[in-house]
Amino acid sequence: MRLRQSLPLLVAGALAGSATLLPTPALATPAAPAAPVKAAASPSIPKPFGPEVAVQASEAIGRAAAPLTSDRLGQALQPAGTAVQTTPRTDTRPQAPTPAKHPLAANSTAATASCTPADFGSRSGADLVSFVQGSTTDCVNTLFNVTGTDAGRIFKQSQMLTVAAAFQAQAANYTGDNTTGILQLVLFLRAGYYVQSNNASAVGPYDATLTTAVKAGLDAFFASAHWHDVSDANGLVLYDVLILTDSANIQAQYLNVYKQVLNGYTNAYNASPKMVKAVNAVLFAPMWRANWNPDYVNALSADPSAITALANFAQNHKDLLGTANQFLDVNAGNDLARTAGDGGAVGTFAKPLVKQVLDTTPVTGTTGPLYVYTAYNANQYDNAQCSYYGTCDLPGKLTAAVLPNTLVCDNRTIRGEALSPADLATVCASLRGEDGFFHNMVKDNGPVPNQYGKTITLAVFKNQPDYLTYSWAIYGNSTNNGGQTVMDVTDPTNQPVSVMYQKSWNDGFPANVWNLNHEYTHYLDNIYDMKGNFGTEISVPDIWWIEGVAEYESYAYRGTTDTQAMAEAATHRYKLSTVFQNTYDNSDSVRTYPWGYMAVRYMLEKHPADVSAMLGHFRTGDYQGGYAVYNNLGTSYDADFDAWLNTCAAGACYAAGPTALFGQSVNGATVTLTDKSVETNSQARITSWHWTFGDGTSADQQNPVHTYANPGTYTVALTVTDSNGKTASTPAGVTIATGAGTTLPTCTDPRTDALGQNCSRPNQARTAGNLDYLYLYLPAGTTTLKVSTSGGTGNASLYYNPDTWASPSAFTASSTNPGTSQSITVTNTTAGFRYISLYANTDFSGVTVSTQY
Fold first, then answer.
1. Is the whole-model pTM more than 0.85?
2. For residues 618 and 329, what is the distance between their CA atoms, to the nearest angstrom?
């Protein structure tokens, strides 16, 4: 993936996957320190946070990041797999029907409560309060996205005052859990602030009357006996209550509460993930965002002990670094460094504490994330003091510490974290050879005139964790990907850089540098084919070429088979005319990369004149003209492309020599692997097999059976060697759901009827004759889905339907064993929603439903 324009801001996924938001430094060339930012002087306050949403971390090559606006500069370091919604969006997911009766259970009367905007907007007073408390939290969460008339009816101030009064009444006797529905009241208030901030004209103004009412409820809650309880039951409620202090913009009133939360944390909290999230609520919401609020900064000035609490947390909980909960410690450092930029007494108090954190935190090793994020935010918000902090050239400092191994390879500088001299030479040789292959492929006439960037840096981190920790702070790349090329050929000061990392298993790339040749192709393409900066280049739908040519060159140059593309070819998922319209917004990774590969390969093989005409326009900056070359083809090549896919998948597109292929079958903690490798256009035969199982073990059998000690998703890689000594490698993920009695983690989507990737929904229950409806969304490229149920009591049958809500009378797969232990495995061909149900042959309860793909 490439990004060719400098980004003043960064979507950094270093600790929280693709949705983490952090500011970023200048790119390749360190800039002079800017004037310090006084956060309290900002002209606007960040909008309230929306609900928690699920995200899926990805190692896909990724799409281009874009500059973030100031209102999105909120810290959002979250537990892996979750993020906080910051902008309204339409929920396009299916709404479950009222549970249908089995034909044999006509006398049953159970039904699911309705949950529509009208259900809330048509109620007021005690009726509204009762309905909110009686709704599920999933139902209330849908209100964050209402607009227009619905927004006004539901969240006008009179409605908010009614719910705030109910919150106060419930808070006074808070029981430490949600047995009274207090969480639904808090979610309603949070949703109101969120919706009003995005739909002020529809909702109307909120004034001090509402602030007073909400504060009364918060005061009652924090005066109750159980808000300190260390339990998931309390953490579930406390998380949203703490965020409500930020949504109402009254953070200054609750400094003492924030201190209590931070000072009360111990490692005993780690056994209660929802309490960990509640602690993080303080760190990613009020104590990060409230620096924009002068009242909060003034309160800190009057009582700076909250700053001490942040510093103590950062210093005393470094044992969290390198664990799944390291976001807590890093967030404390982030908040502390940002506070130093508030100036005045607050800045004076915070500065030595920031310096102490930096001076006592090694740059490398498990402490790296705390150092990097604290140092970066010290520069971002208090960079006039960078000499004091020792961070004036932070990119240079990090480069020296993390990327010490350097080789100048003609116009390329290769910087490696763990590349040996032999590795550096291997990478250099591969890149040198790639130049000629590229020129022969695109038939260019030399560099596009009057563009800059004729030298490039290639930065190679030793693994993904270090890539996530350091790369963004050195080079300004986004990190929710497997590598990125950052350059702007219109800027004479910009230094092109390709940032990537090594895989721990053999992926067939030189020195195991993942995407090395893909990223370098982006650089060559920009120098020889594409005039202008990245924004100009993607002004038309040309991602099929930009990403497709990088994928095609990567595989063709290395003489290896794109096994994912070959599997996709057999599905006939997309027409060529559809792929021609690829953009980063309308295409997932499957449509972008393997289908881009096939579109480019087909056009180069079958219609090179069209490619030449297109590139002729691109090289002059005429992107509309280049787009017209293939857009005007309409569907004229679709039929031939479809026929070509058959030939391609049948072996015509396989590289000469060996191609590593294998199948897998999982039973509990054991996977059976079946070699399906082929030799193409060669008289040689495959003579050896080497497997790595992703858990540190390996085998040299042709068809091994391997048992894992722990559940999880592992990368299995097969390397085959033929009698000519030629090798080929292919990886695939293997998901182990059970082992030593464990189960998959609970799905994180706020909708409790939503399943997800490699997760479970526990405690499912229904009375006899009723259906428990669930669903999930399968992304493109998913080949196999396994659905299983376990535990609990009773008798429940499992049904699956790819098209509509599943039931005993509408299913394409089922499992009807006696009891609650069921399993279905289906082959998937397209992206989209899938529907699952449990039918209660008898009453069942405590059942866990798991999905793996």
1. no
2. 48
Both structure tokens of 52: 């928690």
Per CATH, which fold does 538-654 belong to?
Answer: Neutral Protease; domain 2 (1.10.390)
In the CATH scheme, what is the code of domain 759-852? 2.60.120.380
CA–CA distance from 45 to each of 75, 97, 535 (Å)? 14, 40, 29
pLDDT the model gives residue 214: 98
Q: Do domains 538-654 and 759-852 have the same CATH topology?
A: no
What are the structural domain ranges in the chain? 538-654, 657-736, 759-852
29 pLDDT band, cuts 50/70/90, is very low
- The CATH number corresponding to 657-736 among 1.20.1250.20, 2.60.40.10, 3.30.360.10, 1.10.8.100 equals 2.60.40.10
Which pLDDT does position 7 carry in this prediction?
27
Sign of CA dihedral 310, 247, 293, 197: positive
- Tell me the per-residue pLDDT of 275-288, one tens digit each, with 9 for 90 and over: 999 999 999 999 99
Is residue 461 within 8 A of residue 417, CB to CB? The reply is: yes
Q: Please indicate whether residue 117 or residue 588 has the higher confidence score (pLDDT).
A: 117
Please give the full DSSP string across 253-285, using - where no structure is assigned. Answer: GGHHHHHHHHHH--GGGGG-HHHHHHHHHHHHT
The identity of residue 38, as a single letter, is: K
The residue type at 228: H
Per-chain mean pLDDT for the chain = 86
Retrieve residue 705's tokens: 């059976």
Taking CA 213 as the corner, what is the angle to CA 211 and CA 217, rounded to the nearest 5 degrees?
Answer: 115
Q: Which residue has the higher pLDDT, 841 or 313?
A: 313
Q: Computed from CA positions of residues 200, 203, 206, 210, in that sequence, does the dihedral angle turn out positive or negative? A: negative
